[in-house]
Amino acid sequence: MESRSLEEWNDQIKKDIADNRVFIYAKGEKNAAMCGFSHRVMQIFNAIGSEYAVRNIFSDPNIRPAICAFTNWPTTPQIFVDGEFVGGCDIVTEMYQSGELQTLLEKPAAKAD
Amino acid sequence: MITIDEVQKKIESALPGARVRVGTFSGHDHFEAIVEAPQFVGKSRIEQHRMVYDALDGLIGGAMHALALKTSPLDEAES
């Protein structure tokens, strides 16, 4: 179990989403979700064949409050693409079903300034 | 504990004119909602979801363990 402050997690979140094209804050580890919604999101990125990284919000009690404050979003999982918050499980599912998510990921990675 | 009716009323009063359907799944604290609202026209999906979360002020993560949400703009000309 890690133990970092909210401030440190806020900095870590900025680093996570800058260093990874697709980043998921989930309940559980990559491909070992502990929640149906986190599981579904990982399955979607697996189905697309996209690389993604996961941070388990249960690995430190401060991750969940830090990420919810960062995005002003009350639920997890939370998904970022190219450093931008895309939404939660419902939005990512809709984007996958409509093909928007695949289109977004086919584009070359947007370069963050 | 919060009921389906209470969740529905909170969303309806924050978004007048909306069509709101609320249910539960896998237990009484996992909610699902389908919300069609005129206020969603021109808003991104993230903004639409935020408007529903705001209507439920602090309940999500508390009395509501989860909310599976589907939102869409309601074109008033069609309703």
Q: How much strand content do the residues of chain B show?
A: 25-35%
Please name the fourth-level CATH homologous superfamily of chain B: BolA-like
Mean pLDDT over the residues of chain B = 92
Give a quick account of the main beta sheet of chain B: strands, pairing sense, barrel closure: 3 strands, mixed
- The quaternary state of the protein chains shown equals heterodimer
Q: How many individual β-strands of chain B?
A: 3
- What strand order characterises the main sheet of chain B? 1-2-3
Order of helices and strands of chain B: HEEHE
Count of structural domains of chain B = 1
Q: What structural class do helix, strand and pairing data of chain A support?
A: alpha+beta
Our Rg estimate of chain A from Cα atoms comes to 13 Å
The secondary structure category of chain B is alpha+beta
Element pattern of chain A in H and E: HEEEHEHEEHH
- State the name of the first-level CATH class of chain A: Alpha Beta
Sum up the overall morphology of chain B in one term. globular
Largest interface, with counts of residues having CB < 8 Å to the other chain, equals: A-B, 15 and 12 residues
Please give the structural blueprint.
The complex is a heterodimer of chains A (113) and B (79).
Chain A: H1 6-19, E1 22-26, E2 28-29, E3 32-33, H2 36-48, E4 53-56, H3 63-71, E5 78-81, E6 84-87, H4 89-98, H5 100-106
Parallel strand pairs in A: 1-4
Antiparallel strand pairs in A: 1-5, 2-3, 5-6
Helix pairs in contact in A: 1-3, 2-4
Chain B: H1 4-14, E1 19-24, E2 30-37, H2 45-55, E3 66-73
Parallel strand pairs in B: 2-3
Antiparallel strand pairs in B: 1-2
Structure in words:
By secondary structure, chain A is α+β, with helices and mostly antiparallel strands. Chain A has a single domain, classed as Glutaredoxin, CATH 3.40.30. Chain A is 47% helix and 19% strand. Chain A has a 4-stranded mixed beta sheet with strand order 4-1-5-6, with helices on both faces. The N and C termini of chain A lie far apart (33 Å). Chain B is an alpha+beta fold and 79 residues long. In chain B, strands 1-2-3 form a 3-stranded mixed beta sheet, with helices on one face. Chain B has one domain: BolA-like (GMP Synthetase, Chain A, domain 3, 2-Layer Sandwich). The model of chain B has no long low-confidence stretch (mean pLDDT 92). At the A-B interface, strand 6 and helix 4 of A face helix 2 and strand 3 of B.
